[in-house]
Amino acid sequence: NNSSQLSSLPLHILLYVNGVYYTFYFLATLAMIIYKSQVFSYPDDFLAPDLAVLFLMAILEVPRLYLGFKGNLTEAEVPLGLSLGLTVGSVLLCVYLLLWQSYVLWADVLLNAVLLAAYGLESGLKVTAIAAFVS
Asked: What is the CA radius of gyration of the chain?
Protein backbone atom coordinates (compact mmCIF):
# COMPACT_ATOMS: atom_id res chain seq x y z
CA ASN A 1 0.00 0.00 0.00
CA ASN A 2 1.64 3.21 -1.23
CA SER A 3 -0.91 5.70 0.07
CA SER A 4 0.10 7.88 2.97
CA GLN A 5 -2.16 9.94 5.14
CA LEU A 6 -1.12 13.58 5.11
CA SER A 7 -3.92 15.10 7.19
CA SER A 8 -2.75 16.40 10.55
CA LEU A 9 -4.18 14.93 13.75
CA PRO A 10 -2.75 17.76 15.92
CA LEU A 11 -4.40 20.31 13.59
CA HIS A 12 -7.71 18.42 13.75
CA ILE A 13 -7.61 18.34 17.56
CA LEU A 14 -6.64 22.02 17.76
CA LEU A 15 -9.46 23.05 15.37
CA TYR A 16 -11.91 21.15 17.59
CA VAL A 17 -10.52 22.70 20.80
CA ASN A 18 -10.57 26.15 19.18
CA GLY A 19 -14.24 25.66 18.28
CA VAL A 20 -15.09 24.81 21.88
CA TYR A 21 -12.88 27.61 23.27
CA TYR A 22 -14.30 30.17 20.83
CA THR A 23 -17.84 29.43 22.05
CA PHE A 24 -16.67 30.11 25.62
CA TYR A 25 -14.69 33.18 24.44
CA PHE A 26 -17.71 34.63 22.61
CA LEU A 27 -20.09 34.17 25.55
CA ALA A 28 -17.57 35.48 28.10
CA THR A 29 -16.67 38.52 25.96
CA LEU A 30 -20.34 39.27 25.28
CA ALA A 31 -21.10 39.03 29.01
CA MET A 32 -18.19 41.36 29.79
CA ILE A 33 -19.30 43.93 27.21
CA ILE A 34 -22.80 43.87 28.77
CA TYR A 35 -21.24 44.12 32.25
CA LYS A 36 -19.00 47.04 31.19
CA SER A 37 -21.94 48.84 29.57
CA GLN A 38 -23.82 48.65 32.90
CA VAL A 39 -20.95 49.39 35.33
CA PHE A 40 -18.89 51.93 33.39
CA SER A 41 -20.04 55.00 31.50
CA TYR A 42 -19.79 53.25 28.14
CA PRO A 43 -20.10 55.84 25.34
CA ASP A 44 -22.99 54.73 23.11
CA ASP A 45 -20.99 55.26 19.93
CA PHE A 46 -18.36 52.79 21.21
CA LEU A 47 -20.70 50.04 22.36
CA ALA A 48 -21.93 49.27 18.81
CA PRO A 49 -18.44 48.88 17.22
CA ASP A 50 -17.24 46.64 20.07
CA LEU A 51 -20.31 44.41 19.67
CA ALA A 52 -20.01 44.52 15.87
CA VAL A 53 -16.39 43.31 16.05
CA LEU A 54 -17.38 40.44 18.37
CA PHE A 55 -20.26 39.36 16.12
CA LEU A 56 -18.18 39.72 12.93
CA MET A 57 -15.56 37.53 14.56
CA ALA A 58 -18.22 34.92 15.39
CA ILE A 59 -19.46 34.99 11.78
CA LEU A 60 -15.87 34.50 10.50
CA GLU A 61 -15.24 31.65 12.94
CA VAL A 62 -17.79 29.30 11.32
CA PRO A 63 -16.29 29.19 7.79
CA ARG A 64 -12.77 29.46 9.29
CA LEU A 65 -13.22 26.24 11.27
CA TYR A 66 -15.27 24.49 8.56
CA LEU A 67 -12.64 25.15 5.88
CA GLY A 68 -9.89 24.14 8.29
CA PHE A 69 -11.55 20.79 9.04
CA LYS A 70 -12.47 20.22 5.38
CA GLY A 71 -9.02 21.12 4.05
CA ASN A 72 -7.26 18.96 6.62
CA LEU A 73 -9.50 15.91 6.21
CA THR A 74 -9.58 16.01 2.40
CA GLU A 75 -5.87 16.93 2.27
CA ALA A 76 -6.74 19.93 0.08
CA GLU A 77 -4.59 23.04 0.27
CA VAL A 78 -7.20 25.51 -1.07
CA PRO A 79 -9.75 25.23 1.79
CA LEU A 80 -6.89 25.14 4.30
CA GLY A 81 -5.38 28.25 2.69
CA LEU A 82 -8.75 30.02 2.81
CA SER A 83 -9.08 29.05 6.47
CA LEU A 84 -5.62 30.48 7.08
CA GLY A 85 -6.71 33.73 5.40
CA LEU A 86 -9.80 33.93 7.60
CA THR A 87 -7.57 33.29 10.62
CA VAL A 88 -5.64 36.47 9.74
CA GLY A 89 -8.96 38.38 9.83
CA SER A 90 -9.86 36.79 13.16
CA VAL A 91 -6.44 37.71 14.58
CA LEU A 92 -6.97 41.37 13.59
CA LEU A 93 -10.40 41.43 15.25
CA CYS A 94 -8.97 39.73 18.34
CA VAL A 95 -6.19 42.35 18.52
CA TYR A 96 -8.88 45.07 18.31
CA LEU A 97 -10.69 43.53 21.29
CA LEU A 98 -7.37 43.18 23.13
CA LEU A 99 -6.08 46.71 22.55
CA TRP A 100 -8.74 49.10 21.26
CA GLN A 101 -12.15 48.26 22.70
CA SER A 102 -13.50 50.94 25.04
CA TYR A 103 -12.64 49.18 28.30
CA VAL A 104 -10.12 46.34 28.48
CA LEU A 105 -10.32 44.29 31.68
CA TRP A 106 -7.69 41.76 32.84
CA ALA A 107 -10.15 39.01 31.81
CA ASP A 108 -10.21 40.48 28.26
CA VAL A 109 -6.42 40.33 28.17
CA LEU A 110 -6.43 36.71 29.35
CA LEU A 111 -9.19 35.54 26.97
CA ASN A 112 -7.63 37.28 23.96
CA ALA A 113 -4.09 36.12 24.78
CA VAL A 114 -5.24 32.47 24.88
CA LEU A 115 -7.17 32.92 21.61
CA LEU A 116 -4.19 34.58 19.88
CA ALA A 117 -1.87 31.79 21.07
CA ALA A 118 -4.31 29.18 19.73
CA TYR A 119 -4.59 31.03 16.39
CA GLY A 120 -0.79 31.18 16.16
CA LEU A 121 -0.34 27.48 16.87
CA GLU A 122 -3.17 26.56 14.50
CA SER A 123 -1.69 28.75 11.73
CA GLY A 124 1.69 27.05 12.09
CA LEU A 125 0.04 23.63 11.81
CA LYS A 126 -1.99 24.78 8.77
CA VAL A 127 1.15 26.01 6.98
CA THR A 128 2.87 22.70 7.78
CA ALA A 129 -0.14 20.71 6.52
CA ILE A 130 -0.38 22.79 3.31
CA ALA A 131 3.33 22.19 2.70
CA ALA A 132 2.79 18.43 3.16
CA PHE A 133 -0.21 18.44 0.79
CA VAL A 134 1.55 20.27 -2.07
CA SER A 135 4.80 18.31 -1.86
From this structure: 17
- As for how many domains the chain has, the answer is 1
- What pLDDT band is residue 124 in, cutting at 50, 70 and 90? very high
Handedness of CA 89, 91, 93, 96 (dihedral sign): negative
Range of the domain at 62: 9-134
Specify if 65 maps to a domain. yes
Biggest CA-to-CA distance, the chain? 66
Tell me, yes or no, whether 98 lies in a domain: yes
pLDDT, tens only, 72-86: 999 999 999 999 999
Is 1 part of any domain? Answer: no
